[in-house]
Amino acid sequence: ETGVTQTPRHLVMGMTNKKSLKCEQHLGHNAMYWYKQSAKKPLELMFVYSLEERVENNSVPSRFSPECPNSSHLFLHLHTLQPEDSALYLCASSPVIGNTEAFFGQGTRLTVV
Amino acid sequence: DQQVKQNSPSLSVQEGRISILNCDYTNSMFDYFLWYKKYPAEGPTFLISISSIKDKNEDGRFTVFLNKSAKHLSLHIVPSQPGDSAVYFCAAKTGANNLFFGTGTRLTVIP
């Protein structure tokens, strides 16, 4: 099993849909992250969870709603997205929050139509 | 405003030669720098890092150089191999805070 697994790998959704992205890590890490990578832009940190508690929300619109039911799982619930939200969404984990070497999942390529 | 910049979107190098990937940053409080490598359809993977108290860190074919006065970071790959073809991201952080990434440089190593 890979360390950090994201599903689905690809997702196309309409602006009125509700969908969820899932991330699972098998590394025993305590911190998990959601990043967004838009075309020609750097990875942008969206949310940080430490021991299932959200510790950072980088001014992300409320149409993105994270959930961390336990330290191994992280979800990103999506509703009423805009076409400009189309991007690669990457999940990462690290042993503790702020640890330098984050391990990334393969990402979910999201297209909003 | 981007705090970490990779001004070269792409780089092509002949197999066996040196690849040099550059990164500039604006925040003088950054104290740890990392390079990540990303293959298509995969997430970024950690490659090498350097603390701000050092100016060089070497790991096999990969060496990272840090010039704090110039706020410049570079990754040298010698000798370059076709399997090194990927997108390379520079990242930086302060203390226990989170990583700031550059936009990446796509390296192509030509056999």
List the helices and strands and how they pair.
The complex is a heterodimer of chains A (113) and B (111).
Chain A lengths: L3 E4 L2 E4 L4 E8 L5 E7 L6 E7 L2 E5 L6 E7 L2 E7 L7 E8 L8 E2 L3 E5 L1
Parallel strand pairs in A: 2-11
Antiparallel strand pairs in A: 1-3, 3-8, 4-5, 4-9, 5-6, 7-8, 9-10, 9-11
Chain B lengths: L3 E2 L4 E5 L4 E7 L6 E7 L6 E7 L4 E4 L2 E6 L4 E6 L8 E8 L6 E2 L3 E6 L1
Parallel strand pairs in B: 2-11
Antiparallel strand pairs in B: 1-3, 3-8, 4-5, 4-9, 6-7, 7-8, 9-10, 9-11
What are the key terms here?
heterodimer; A: 113 residues; mainly beta; 7-stranded mixed beta sheet; 4-stranded antiparallel beta sheet; 57% strand; B: 111 residues; 6-stranded mixed beta sheet; 5-stranded antiparallel beta sheet; 54% strand
Short description:
The complex is a heterodimer of chains A (113) and B (111). Chain A contains no helices and eleven strands. Chain A has 113 residues and is mainly β.
Q: What is the number of helical segments of chain A per DSSP (H or I, 4+ residues)? A: 0
Spatial extent as radius of gyration of chain A: 13 Å
If helices are DSSP runs of H or I spanning 4 or more residues, what is the number of helices of chain B? 0
Distance linking N and C termini of chain B: 38 Å
Q: Could you tell me the mean pLDDT of chain A?
A: 90
Rg of chain B, please?
Answer: 13 Å
Tally of extended strands of chain B?
11
